[in-house]
Amino acid sequence: MNIGFYFKFVGAEIGGSYTFQKNFLTSLLRMADKQHDIFILYSGKKQWKDDEVAANITFINIDDLPTPATTINGVGIKNLIPQPVQKIINKVNLLFTYYNTKIQYYNNYNNKIQHIVDKYGIDFFYFVHPTYYALKIPFAITVWDLAHRRHPYLPEESYMHNNFQRKDNFFANVLPRASMIATGTNESKKQIIKYYNCEEELIKVIPFPVIEDLVVADVVAPGKELPSEYFFYPAQMWSQKNHIVLLKALEILKKKGKKYHFVFTGSDQGNYTYIKNKISELELTDQITFADFVDRGQLKYLYQNAIAMVFPAIIGPDNLPPIEAMSLGCPVLCGNYEGATDQLGDTALFFDRLNEEDLAGKMENVFENIDLRKELIAKGYNLTNELGNFDNYLNKIYSHLNIYQKIIRTWKDS
Which of 77, 3, 91 is nearest to 41 (CA)? Predict the structure, then answer.
């Protein structure tokens, strides 16, 4: 069977989307499943070495493709529209999505990807990044979360970039049509059924695996001076990441004479100024270190040397940082987002993610109880050993896709 995979390569500073896709691609190249011919369609910057590519894998950069010919009354024509005009059309396209309308034009991705599908005889298409372009073949898609439905009050899930309308239109159009939906937890599966009325059998629960490129990275100390003991929180500066509860917990502990330190990493996504102002207001400046964006070796260092990784994020049901921390022997304090115990079992010390007093008590317990930290580390290793890396994840994907090979043969050779 000829299988197409779509990646939307983004910068490492974006966070989870980059990490998931990069590790998925690494396993895809390493495994090079000989049962199938693989066609990797991508946009963005190249993220592999040519000597990693097996003979049965073809890379196609969608951005570099010429606009395919189209037809008017059955007569083929070439797209002769100048690039400046095309850019204006694309901007109008974006504007009209606000009203759930889309101008289809000759140089959009739908035409380009369908052209590749036809040219190479691709039988099944897998959108690794939760994106979709209308294709005339069966497809699968990854769903990481439906936060816009579960948490529509968050700025980044509602009015910012018209995210609620954009995401809701997208999932409502795509999920009921998907041949397979891959998601990480049973909680996520329940939300997909609840909000988009999808067929239960088509939703495959495949837990997030261990992030291999982080595990094998060479340890590098960050450039900034760090305290000898610290809690760690790696997260972009979104409101959903809930940095505020960490600050409030530090304030409570400080009043008890316990000045714990936090190291934050992650780029500003609109909430940085608010967080900085709150740090000053609560007089916590000397207890917070902003390491900003760090590379994989520095991130590994921060995990391995932390008292614990504290994860108060509001949204779930799937999150990568707890799995990252556990795979590197870092204890995890985790907020009780929907699906947290589904994803992590009893391997983390859970707290009410909106209750700073609960968090302060759990932080104090972990800081002072080395036996508790050892217990959490051991449980974390057990879970990550069970999850395996992206090879294990991809094998599960292939096991489901192989079923469709038998279905597709009812109307074509595959």
Answer: 3
Distant-in-sequence, close-in-space partners of 189: CB < 8 Å, separation ≥ 6: 183, 200, 203, 205
Dump pLDDT digits (tens) for 15-39: 778 889 989 998 998 887 678 899 9
Q: Which residues contact 85 (CB under 8 A, 6 or more apart)?
A: none
Supply the pLDDT for residue 242.
Answer: 97
Rounded to whole angstroms, how far apart are CA atoms 113 and 394?
23
CA atoms of 313 and 346, how far apart (whole Å): 18
Segment 278-321, tens digit of pLDDT: 999 999 999 999 997 889 999 999 999 999 999 999 999 999 99
Please state, as a whole number, how many other Cβ atoms lie within 10 Å of the Cβ of residue 280.
Answer: 10
Q: In terms of Cα–Cα distance, which of 140, 243, 151, 155 is closest to 195?
A: 151
Over the stretch 93-145, which tens digit does the pLDDT of each residue have? 555 544 443 444 334 567 888 889 999 999 999 999 888 878 899 999 999 99
Tokens read off for 304: 């391995």
CB–CB of 35/1 below 8 Å? yes
Amino acid at 375: E
| Residue 91 and residue 97 in contact, taking contact as beta carbons nearer than 8 Å | no
Q: Which CATH superfamily is domain 2-68+109-209+389-408 in?
A: Glycogen Phosphorylase B; (3.40.50.2000)
What does R_g of the chain's alpha carbons equal in angstroms? 23
Q: Angle at which helices 16-31 and 390-408 pack, to 10 degrees?
A: 70
User: Across 308-381, where does the E strand assignment appear?
Assistant: 308-311, 332-335, 349-351
Q: Domain 212-387 is of which CATH architecture?
A: 3-Layer(aba) Sandwich (3.40)
